């Protein structure tokens, strides 16, 4: 099992960490949007794929009584291969610890990329409670199982591309695809082989996603809860599957989404790139879009 010694901070020095200042100062302390609960996952801190600026913006604009970190917050696999830790990634850890200090109850359910934290299940570091799974009770009395989702890889791993999720190899493959496209175009070569390859990948991905969603929802029905909240597959979702409420909070690599619970127990997926675009659009454009 991997150890945490390679991470840029260690749990015994959390108080020093909290005393330091973030490189990107916090904005909008007052007047933050308030929710009962927030779920985020698949941040993949320690990789170039992590959309840290977007998540920092989210954390500075949104607050909640309770926050679940649904796994793959850190990417221990990537950090082990090549150490990558920009100041913005530190700033995210700082912000999460800061809100724990301000009174937000934080439950951290490590995923497969940050499984090194699973050895601390049941412990509490600086107000962050580490759990293997959790059952969340909504304001309208529904019981929702919260888990990362890699528990079901043994069943769904027939689609091997999942192993590349959030991984440098996956990023390299996508970069190579783009580069090949440019070269082929400049040589007047036909495009068909690449598009065929991509289509096959997408087809596999779609069947993998629906299989994952069904298996996770089935687990919820076996556990006799009303619904389930997962991460892992980087596909935000909110739908009914055979009477089970299936939620996936998405990721902060491509989708940049969070799941939130309003004070009446209703749930919503926030697409943060769209929220930022709407906020930054001139007023006339907003009126145009609404018309
Ligand atoms: Mn995962």
From TrEMBL:
**Would you tell me the Gene Ontology cellular component terms?**
membrane
Choose any GO biological process term that the UniProt entry carries and state it: lipid A biosynthetic process
Q: Cell inner membrane as a keyword?
A: yes
In Gene Ontology terms, what is one molecular function of this protein?
Answer: UDP-2,3-diacylglucosamine hydrolase activity
Domain Calcineurin-like phosphoesterase, residue spans: 36-235
Say yes or no: keyword Cytoplasm present.
no
Q: Which UniProt keywords apply?
A: Cell inner membrane, Cell membrane, Manganese, Membrane, Metal-binding
Q: Can you say what this protein is called?
A: UDP-2,3-diacylglucosamine pyrophosphatase LpxH
What species does this protein belong to? Sphingomonas xinjiangensis
């Amino acid at each position: 099992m991997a150890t945490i010694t390679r991470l840029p901070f260690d749990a015994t020095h959390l108080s020093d960490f909290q005393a330091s200042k973030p490189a990107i100062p916090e904005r909008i302390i007052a007047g933050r949007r308030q929710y009962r609960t927030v779920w985020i996952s698949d941040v993949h801190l320690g990789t170039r794929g992590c959309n840290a600026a977007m998540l920092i913006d989210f954390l500075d604009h949104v607050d909640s009584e309770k926050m679940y970190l649904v796994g793959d917050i850190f990417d221990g696999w990537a950090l082990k291969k090549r150490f990558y830790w920009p100041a913005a990634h530190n700033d995210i850890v700082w912000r999460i610890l800061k809100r724990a200090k301000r009174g937000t109850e934080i439950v951290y359910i490590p995923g497969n990329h940050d499984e090194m934290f699973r050895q601390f299940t049941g412990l509490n570091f600086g107000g962050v409670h580490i759990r293997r799974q959790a059952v969340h009770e909504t304001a309208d009395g529904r019981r929702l199982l919260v888990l990362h989702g890699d528990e079901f890889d043994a069943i769904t791993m027939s689609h091997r591309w999942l192993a590349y999720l959030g991984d440098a190899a996956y990023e390299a493959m996508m970069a190579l695809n783009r580069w090949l496209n440019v070269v082929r175009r400049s040589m007047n070569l036909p495009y068909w082989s690449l598009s065929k390859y991509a289509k096959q990948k997408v087809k596999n991905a779609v069947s993998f996603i629906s299989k994952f969603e069904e298996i996770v929802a089935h687990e919820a029905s076996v556990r006799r809860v009303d619904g389930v909240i997962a991460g892992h597959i980087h596909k935000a979702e909110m739908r009914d599957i055979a009477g089970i409420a299936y939620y996936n909070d998405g990721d902060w690599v491509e989708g940049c989404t969070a799941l939130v619970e309003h004070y009446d127990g209703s749930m919503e997926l926030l697409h943060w790139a769209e929220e930022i675009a709407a906020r930054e659009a001139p007023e006339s454009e907003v009126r145009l879009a609404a018309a």
